[in-house]
C-alpha cells in the first residue's frame, strides 16, 4: 500500500520535472476563462508567475467560458480543438466529462501534493467531483441588497426568504435567468426542508410549486445572465436586492464603496475549476499539464484569494489566505467558506442537476416567456 | 445623354424585313450578321458571367454553404440510428399499441448498443437528443451508461469462476483469432469499423493488430463481432495492445448467450475448445440473462411504453421532431398533437417577433418620413450637414447605442431623472421603460431609423419640387398638394425603407438581449440560446429555417414591388 | 411713380409679439416651475417675465440696442439659474437666456418670415415651423443617446450612471481613467489592433470582388440575373444569428474557425451586399458609350477599366467600401462565433465589457470612435464640395 503510493508520487514528480523536457512543450497555450476581475486574479496569481519561470511561453486568454460546452462540442465535431485549458463550473465539467469532451485525469498524478506531502486527492477531498475536473475555487451565489432603501423603514433582510417578501422589502429584485439556484430558494422559502429540496424538485408538482413561488415576485424581477449585471443594477439602484457571485459583490462593496451589503443567508456553494479538452496533441498537453500542476498548487490557489474573495479549493491553501493586495483588508471573513458565513448553506446536488437541467430549463424558459 | 447612340447594338435587321432571308446580311468578316451577332451576345454573356463568377463562388462557399449546412441540422437525426443501430432495427416490428414494452431481443440489442456507446462516451449525447422529445431520457441514458456493465453479473461471475482463462486477455485473443496461422475473416472487422465510425464520427482506419478466426466467426458470430469492435476500439482509440487487454463484459455476455442457444461446437478444435465446451455445460445450468429485467432494474423508465415509443418514433435518419417542436407540437400518442400548455413558447415568440417588428417598422416610417422630407427639400449644403446627424448614429457601434439606451431608459436613468427633476413623475413612481417591449422598441427604432431614412431620402431627392408648386398654383391646398402629388411619388421610398427595416428587425438579437428583459425578446434570442446554452442545435436550425423562410418571402415581395436594384444607401 | 416693396420682414405689433412671447415663456416656465415643485407659479412667472422682457426690448428700448439687451437677458437668466440650481442651473440659465434673447427679436421683428415664400398665410408659417420643430425633435432623438454617453466616459466610477457629483459638475466626479485604461490595457490595444487588421482586408476583398461582379451584373445580357442578385444580397437579409451559427459549424469543419482568415472571409461575405448595392446604383447612371469610345481609341479592357470606368464609378465604390468597412468594424455576432481569442475585435471586447465586467471604458472607446467618425464624415463632405467646385459644378 505504502509502496504503491510512493511509486505514484515519484511518477508524478518524474512527469513534471524529468520525463517531459521543456523543449517538447508547446510555446503557447490558450486559456479560457470568464473575463473580468476573476480572470484578472488568475492572470496575477497563475500566469504572471508562470511566465516569469517560462519567459518563452505565450498565454492567450479567451473569455468564452460561458459558451465553453457549445464551443468544445463544435470543435470536437470539426476535429480542431484550439483550446488548451478551460475554466468551467462543475456542472459543465460533468457534462463535458460525460460526453467525452474533457480529458480524464488522475489527481495524484497530475496535481502537486500539498507542501506537507498530503497527496492532491486528499488535499482537494470531496471537491474532486468528476474525473475530469480540477477544482480551483469555491464560490457561492448570494444575495446583495442596497443599504439605503427608504421604503424598508430601516429594516434589512436577514433571511434569504426576505427576497420573496415584497411587503416588508418592496422594490425590484434581480435573479439568475435559469432555473439553477432560483428553484432551490423558492422551494426552501415555500416551506420545503433543505434536505428534501431535490426530491421535491424531481416531481412535476415540485417544479410547479417552485415556479408558483417565483410567480409571486415575477413582475418585480430583472433577470440577469452575466455575473456583472447584478452589481451594476445594485449600484445604479435599479434593483434593491439581487443574487450574484459573492466575488462580484465583494468588489462592489469593498472596492467600489457602493451602499450595498451581503446577505450570507441561504448561499449556494458552487465550484469552478479547470478541465483539459480531450485529444490535445502531445506537446500542447505537456505544456498544459506543466502549467496546471503549477497553477493549482497550494501557494498559487492561496495567492488567488488576494485578488478576489473566492475560497481556494485546497484544504492546505486556507491557512495561507492573506490580505487583499490593494485594499489591505483581511480576506478570510469575506470567503464564502468562512464559518460565520456558512450558517445556512444550501449544498447543490450537482449530479442531480446534470440529469435534470435540460428538462427544467425548458419549463423555466417557457414559464419566463409566458 | 439623349443621344441615340447609347443604345448598344448596330442596327439589326428589322423583323419585318423578311425578303432578305434569301440573301443574309453579312458582317465585315463574311459570316452572316445574325450568327455574328449571336456570337457577340454570347461573348458578352460569358464576359459578364466571368466577372460575376469569382464573387458568386465566394459567396456560395463562404456564406450559402454554411447556411444550408446549418439548416440541414433541423431534419438530421443520425445520432439515434448511429448510436443504437441494432436496437432501432430490432424495435421496428414493435408497436406501442401492443400495450407492453418490446421483447427480449430488443433489450439484448439495446444492451450491446448501449455498452459500446458508453465505452465511446456517446450515450449521453443520445440521451440529450431524446430528452428533447421525452423529458427525463437524458438521465435515463446517463445512469444506464454507468450501470450497463452490471447486466448479467451472475452469469459473468459464474464464467469467471469456472476457469481462470476466461479472465485472461491472451486466452481471449487466441480464441477469437483462432490461434497463430489460422485462416482469418476480415468481414467482422470491417463491420466493426463501420459501426465505430458511424458512432463516433472519427476515423477508425489502421491496424487493430487482430484478425478474427474464420472458424470461430462462423460458430460464434455475435461474440466475434463484439470482440472485433472491442479490439478496434482498444487498438485505435485507446492505443493499447488488444492481446493484453481484457475484453468488455459485452463480449462475454454475447458468448454466454450464443453457447447457451446451442452454438455448434461439435467440430471445433481450435484454441480454447475445451474451455468452450466446459462453459457450455456450465451455462446450461445457469438461468437465462434477463435483459428486460436488468434494464428495468437500472432505470424504471425502460419498463415504460413511452420510452420505447420515443425510441421507435425517432429511430430514423431524418426527423420532423425539431420542426414540430418549433411549432409547439410533438409526436404524441395519437400522432401529431400540441404540446402541453406550460411548454408552448415558440408560436408566441414568432408572433411577438412579427408584431414588434411591425411596430418598429411603423415607428421608423413615422419618424423617418419627416426627416427624409426635410433633407430632400433643403438646399444640398444644409441637407448634407444634417445628414451627418443621421449617419453618426449609423456609424456608432451598435453596442454603444444599446448601452446608451440602457443609461437613458432605466429607472434611475437619464429620462426618469429628468422627469423626476421636472416634477412630472414622483420619485417613487419612476417609469419602467426598460427590460420590456417598450425598451426594445425604442432602442431598435433608434438603431434602425437610418435604414429607413436613407432609402426614403434617395427616392425623395429625385422628386422634382416643381410638381408640388404646379399643384399649388392650380389651386390645391398645401395638404392636397402633398397628399395627392408628393406622397404617391414617395411611396417607393417608404416601401424600400420599410422592408429593409422589417427584414433587419425580425432577425435582431443583440439589442433585445440587452434591453428586452423577458417580454421584449425575439425568436433570435431563443435561437442563440439553443445554439450556445442548451445545445439543441437541431431546434435552433428548425427555428432558423422558419425565420429564414419568412425573410425570404419578404425579400421576394421586396424584389417584386421595389426591385432590389432600387435600394440606395446614402 | 408708385413703388411697391414686399416688406414681409417687418416689426410686428406688440399685440402680436407679447402674447406669443408670454406663451413661450409660460411653456418654459412650466419646466422651471416643475423643478421647483410649483408648476403654476412657474407658468405665470415665465409668462410675465417674457412679456415684460418683450415689452422692454421691443416697445421701450431702441431696436439698435439689440446686442446689449440680449446680453442683459442672458445675464438675468443666468443669475436666476444660479440662485435656483447652482452650477447646473447657471448653465441651463445661460442657455435659456441666449435662446430667449434671440427669440424675442426673432418674433418681435418678424424675422421668422425671412426665408419663407412671401405669400404664405400665418397658418402656413406656423405649420412650417411646427414641422421644423418636429424634425428637430427627431434629430434630437437620433443624437441624444450618443451625446449622453459621452460625459459618462469621464465618470470617475466604474458604473454607467451619472453620479450626484457628476451632476453637480464637481471635478472630483470626473476622471480620464477610462481613457487611460483604453490606451494602456493590452486587451483593448490588442482588440483595436485586431480590428484594424481584419476590417481593411475584409473590405478589400468585398470591394474588389463586389465591384467586378457589379460591373458584370450591370450588363444587359446576364442570365439568371435575379437569382444571382438574390444570392449576392443574401448576407444582408439572412438574420445574423443564422449566418453566425452556420459559419461557425461550417468553418469549424474547414479548420477556419478561430483563425484570422475565417473572420476575414466571414466579414467580407457580410460586406458584399453593400458594395453590390452601391456600385450597381452608380452603374445605372454610367454611360456605356464611354467604354466603347475608349476601346475604339485603342485602349485594352484593363486600361479602359482603370482609366475610364473606375474613376467614374469611384464614388459608389468608395461608399460601398465604407459600408463594408463599418460592417466589419462594428460586427459582433459573427465574430463571437467564428473568431477565437486571437481575433478578438473591438466590438467583441466591448461586448465582454458589457457582459462580464461593466466598465465605462467601452464608452471611452465609443467617444473616440464617434469623434473619428465625425472627422471622417466632415472630411468626406469637404472633399465632395471641393471636387464639385473643381469640376465646375456649383455646390448645391
What this model shows, in words?
The complex is a heterotrimer of chains A (370), B (570) and C (396). Chain A is α/β, with parallel strands linked by helices and 370 residues long. Chain A has two domains: 5-138 and 271-320, D-Maltodextrin-Binding Protein, domain 2, CATH 3.40.190; 141-269 and 332-369, D-Maltodextrin-Binding Protein, domain 2 (3-Layer(aba) Sandwich), CATH 3.40.190. Chain A contains 14 helices and ten strands. The N and C termini of chain A lie far apart (60 Å). Chain B has four domains: 1-7 and 25-73, no CATH class; 83-149 and 291-313, no CATH class; 152-284, no CATH class; 346-566, Orthogonal Bundle (MetI-like fold), CATH 1.10.3720. Chain B contains 26 helices and two strands. In chain B, strand 1 and strand 2 form a beta hairpin. The longest helix of chain B has 40 residues, at 33-72. The two termini of chain B are 25 Å apart. Chain C folds into two domains: 14-119, no CATH class; 185-391, MetI-like fold, CATH 1.10.3720.10. The two termini of chain C are 39 Å apart. The chains are: A alpha/beta (370), B mainly alpha (570), C mainly alpha (396). Chains in contact: A-B, A-C, B-C. At the A-B interface, helix 3 and helix 14 of A face helix 5, helix 6 and helix 25 of B.
> Biggest β-sheet of chain A, characterized?
10 strands, mixed
Radius of gyration of chain B (Å): 36 Å
Number of discrete domains of chain B: 4
Q: Quick check: average pLDDT of chain B?
A: 86
Quickly give the structural class of chain B: mainly alpha
Q: Find the CATH topology of the largest domain in chain B.
A: MetI-like fold
What does this entry show, briefly?
By secondary structure, chain B is mainly alpha-helical. Chain B is 64% helix and 1% strand.
Question: What is the fold's blueprint, element by element?
Answer:
The complex is a heterotrimer of chains A (370), B (570) and C (396).
Chain A: H1 2-19, E1 28-32, H2 36-53, E2 58-62, H3 68-78, E3 85-89, H4 90-98, H5 107-110, H6 120-124, E4 134-146, E5 173-176, H7 182-189, H8 197-201, H9 204-215, E6 221-224, H10 229-236, E7 241-245, H11 246-255, E8 260-275, H12 282-295, H13 298-304, E9 311-312, E10 346-347, H14 350-369
Parallel strand pairs in A: 1-2, 1-3, 5-6, 5-7, 8-10
Antiparallel strand pairs in A: 3-8, 4-7, 4-8, 4-9
Helix pairs in contact in A: 2-13, 4-14, 7-9
Chain B: H1 33-72, H2 79-83, H3 85-90, H4 104-119, H5 123-131, H6 137-147, H7 153-162, H8 169-177, H9 187-200, H10 214-219, H11 221-237, H12 249-260, H13 273-284, H14 291-298, H15 305-313, H16 321-326, E1 329-332, E2 335-338, H17 346-377, H18 380-395, H19 398-409, H20 414-422, H21 437-460, H22 465-473, H23 478-506, H24 510-515, H25 523-532, H26 537-561
Chain C: H1 14-35, H2 39-60, H3 66-108, H4 122-152, H5 164-167, H6 177-184, H7 186-218, H8 225-237, H9 240-254, H10 260-284, H11 289-296, H12 301-329, H13 333-338, H14 346-355, H15 361-390
